[in-house]
Automatic annotation (TrEMBL):
It comes from the Bacteria. Pfam families: DAO. It comes from Flavobacterium cupriresistens. InterPro entries: FAD-dep_OxRdtase, FAD/NAD-bd_sf. This is FAD-dependent oxidoreductase. Residues 4-395 form the FAD dependent oxidoreductase domain.
Length: 411
């Protein structure tokens, strides 16, 4: 039986382990953390076929420049004299055009819809992670954003998604959990959501059942080569012989790729979330508060708010109070009856979204190292795209035709 070593035990690594083990591979996952609080745990839990437009899009550079001078803005690039940042910025600029977006949209849609089907299968087995299909409401308070949302909705409809355009009254009729102060909303019926921590618990239990070895607190340090193949993974707890390797180390993938002599451009997009427990009055439909780019997700009895995207480095673990305040202000503007307080630092979670400059995930076999598959760079959609990524990784390693076309996911 072929042995696969997976570097990184976030949602991408664990979903890859699941489908590989089901295909009959012997799988070991290595993660340097305790695997209980990283980017795959505190995120907003949205499964978003609606998100077909990548971050690299026309207009994003101009918008980003404006936001850079606003301390509470939802998007920010931390200025640094650093070659990785300069290369990333240049690549982002190259991709922020219409033709890239046109090619990206169907690829993201297909990957997302496949993922949603796979989540439905998981939920049928045991919905311990509160998977629900209520769609996603894009709420707005200004005419400018209404126009943008209308345009995005039409693009999504063109690609076959079901979209409803709602007046202020229609939003109020749909969102009965709390009062909304908006001028309207766009409802994507395609979207779903779940409780990320509970899904991670579920998938880990599945991996135990499938006899996958999960090595926590085990840092991957280097790789031993035999010709153009990785023969062993060197870790803080010894070396492990492998037949195949999957690199799924999220925002840390570039430094590991360097050890493999591969250049991958990924920078961490730091974001925050906080979760209010057992609130009786709360929004009932997952929503994005568009002007502030705040994600709002009901998760069983709890409600989670998430937002901000600071392109930074993995050493930047400070919580920026101004940006957190930006999230809180948006919530109180959109939901006037909620009136929530600034969360304390210890109640605030942060995570690093692994952001590629093209806004596309990387899911591909490496061109030079014959037994290496890359599965990383899922940015703000890693939870959404994880089951489909795991399935495709398995198909790539098994030499099968992939379930969706992967040419947009190559480097
Ligand atoms: C505020 C916020 C909200 C979000 N909301 C959503 C959402 O609603 N929907 C959605 O789809 N996505 C969302 N995301 C994005 C999503 O969380 C990420 O895309 C996803 O978690 C990335 O998963 P990953 O497995 O690639 O990386 P990670 O979860 O970061 O996992 C990588 C793992 O690699 C390990 N590692 C690193 N270096 C080493 C090493 N040398 N040796 C061993 N292990 C190593 C790390 O410890 C880590 O556990 C959100 C993110 C944020 C921050």
């Amino acid at each position: 039986m072929k042995k696969v070593g997976i570097v990184g035990g976030g949602i991408i690594g664990l979903c890859s382990a699941y489908y590989l083990a089901k295909e009959g591979y012997e799988v070991a996952v290595f993660d340097e953390s305790a695997m209980e609080d990283g980017c795959s745990y505190g995120n907003a839990g949205m499964i978003v076929p609606s998100h077909i437009i990548p971050l690299a899009q026309p207009g994003m550079i101009a918008q980003g420049m404006k936001w850079m001078f606003d301390s509470q803005s939802p998007f920010y690039v931390k200025p640094r004299l650093n070659t990785d940042l300069l290369k990333w910025g240049l690549q982002f600029y190259k991709h922020a055009n219409k033709s890239h977006v046109e090619r990206a949209m169907p690829a993201l849609r297909d990957l997302s819809l496949l993922s949603k089907e796979l989540y439905q299968d998981f939920a049928k087995e045991n919905n311990s992670f509160f998977y629900e299909e209520k769609g996603l409401l894009m709420l707005y308070r200004t005419d400018k954003v209404e126009e943008e949302m209308y345009h995005e909705g039409k693009e999504a409809e063109r690609l076959g998604l079901e979209v409803n355009y709602l007046s202020r009254r229609e939003v109020e009729a749909l969102e009965t959990g709390t009062k909304t102060d908006v001028i309207g909303g766009v409802h994507y019926k395609s979207d779903a959501h779940l409780y990320p921590q509970k899904f991670m618990k579920f998938i880990k239990e599945e991996l135990v059942r499938l006899k996958v070895e999960v090595h926590q607190h085990t840092t991957v340090k280097d790789f031993v080569f035999e010709g153009n193949k990785i023969a062993k993974i060197g870790t803080s707890k010894g070396t492990f012989a492998v037949d195949e390797v999957v690199l799924a180390a999220g925002s840390w993938s570039p430094s590991l790729a360097k050890k493999l002599n591969i250049g991958i451009s990924i920078l961490p997009g730091k974001g925050y979330s906080f979760t209010l427990k057992d609130r009786s009055q709360k929004p009932s439909i997952p929503s994005i508060l568009c002007e502030g780019k705040v994600a709002v997700t009901p998760m069983n009895n709890d409600i989670r708010f998430g937002g901000t995207m600071e392109i930074t480095h993995t050493g930047d673990t400070k919580i920026n109070e101004n940006r957190l305040r930006g999230i809180v202000t948006s919530i109180n503007d959109f939901y006037p009856d909620m009136q929530i307080e600034m969360p304390k630092a210890e109640e605030t979670w942060f995570g690093f979204r692994p952001c590629t400059p093209s806004g596309m995930p990387i899911i591909t076999k490496d061109k030079k190292i014959v037994n290496l598959t890359l599965a990383t760079g899922h940015a703000m959609m890693g939870l959404s795209l994880a089951p489909a990524t795991g399935k495709i990784v398995t198909e790539i390693i098994a030499g099968k035709t992939t379930s969706v076309d992967t040419k947009m996911f190559q480097i």
